[in-house]
């Protein structure tokens, strides 16, 4: 009798940090996360905001203590390169949908510049039906696939920058820097509507999220080609997601008290967000805010997590030699 081969169980381990992943085309954010989590044998992991399968580019992945700060990346401004097909509208606002209408493309450079300028700053957007926003516990795209239209309230978003990178006939490429909650598909549709020809998104690449950039990201294929030790060496510390916050450094005694959740007196002006460190250069303790001369903890690492970051600080040096 032939014995059934035994399945080898993956042994998970506690690792802490942030991996900057360049998500491939056609992968969901969760699929990319699960692949990276498996490659690193990580116990705990999460991503920092969904990228559609159509989109590529920067997807920060958080592991262990890094997951405590994933919301910061979710709330951060984002940057994209967006490619638009002018003159064609689709049911989804991108190339995955069915064509609704084809119209001639005959706008002038002056009209294009004016339409782009009108979309800068604070604008109102109606979220698309084909989105993961939920209504009565179900994502909107499920209603859309069933042919049911749900009324969606508009919401305010901020387009910090919108620039024309390339324009060839009916193809338009834009660079976008925007606030959280912005739908670039909707931005493409609004631009097409303003120019009287319609438009849809054919490609989207996230280039930045808060202080981190796709220039420092690694692909799944490149990650898979590394040894496990090399993969772990690519992890940046959790404070990578807070790099644009002011830093506060505490003495050893004050750091120990702060880690217990106690407020500390601080001679500093009020700040909505600061990152806090102990005496060791990599002893990141967590995030806080300063109000009325007090340093008030918001999200803290455990002493064990802090110790882990300090003992593995040299690993980040490997990053530059790989990416």
From TrEMBL:
CDD domains reported for this sequence: PseudoU_synth_EcTruB
Span of domain tRNA pseudouridylate synthase B C-terminal:
185-242
The protein's UniProt keywords, in alphabetical order, are: Isomerase, tRNA processing
Report the superkingdom from the record.
Bacteria
Domain Pseudouridine synthase II N-terminal, chain residue ranges per copy: 37-184
Question: Is Membrane among the key words of this record?
Answer: no
Q: Could you identify this protein by its name?
A: tRNA pseudouridine synthase B
One Pfam family name from the record?
TruB-C_2
What is the recorded function of this protein according to its Swiss-Prot or TrEMBL entry? Responsible for synthesis of pseudouridine from uracil-55 in the psi GC loop of transfer RNAs.
Query: Which EC number(s) does the record attach to this protein?
Result: 5.4.99.25
Reactions catalysed, as given in the entry? uridine(55) in tRNA = pseudouridine(55) in tRNA
């Amino acid at each position: 009798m032939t014995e059934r081969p035994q399945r080898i169980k993956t042994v998970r381990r506690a690792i802490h940090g942030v991996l900057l992943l360049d998500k491939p085309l056609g992968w969901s954010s969760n699929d990319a996360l699960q692949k990276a989590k498996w490659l690193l044998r990580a116990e705990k992991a999460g991503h920092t905001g969904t990228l559609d399968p159509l989109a590529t580019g920067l997807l920060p992945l958080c592991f262990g203590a890094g997951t405590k700060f994933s919301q910061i990346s979710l709330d951060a401004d984002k940057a994209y390169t967006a490619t638009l097909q002018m003159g064609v509208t689709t049911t989804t606002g991108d190339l995955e949908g069915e064509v609704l209408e084809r119209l001639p493309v005959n706008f002038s450079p002056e009209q294009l510049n004016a339409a782009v300028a009108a979309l800068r700053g604070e604008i109102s957007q109606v979220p698309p039906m084909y989105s993961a926003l939920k209504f009565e516990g179900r994502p909107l795209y499920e209603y859309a696939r069933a042919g049911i239209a749900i009324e969606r309230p508009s919401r305010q978003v901020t387009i910090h920058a919108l620039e024309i990178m390339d324009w060839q006939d009916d193809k338009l490429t834009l660079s976008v820097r925007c606030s959280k909650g912005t739908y670039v598909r909707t931005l493409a549709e609004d631009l097409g509507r303003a120019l009287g020809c319609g438009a849809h998104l054919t490609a989207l690449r996230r280039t930045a999220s808060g202080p981190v950039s796709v220039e420092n990201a690694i692909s799944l294929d490149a990650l898979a080609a590394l040894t496990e030790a090399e993969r772990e060496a690519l992890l940046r510390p959790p404070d990578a997601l807070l790099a644009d916050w002011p830093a506060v450094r505490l003495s050893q005694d004050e750091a120990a008290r702060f880690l217990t959740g106690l407020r500390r007196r601080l001679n500093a002006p009020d700040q909505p967000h600061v990152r806090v460190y102990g005496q060791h250069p990599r002893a990141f303790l967590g995030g806080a805010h300063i109000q009325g001369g007090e340093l008030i903890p918001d999200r803290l690492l455990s002493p064990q997590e802090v110790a882990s970051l300090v003992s593995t600080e040299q690993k980040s040096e490997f990053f530059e030699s790989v990416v």
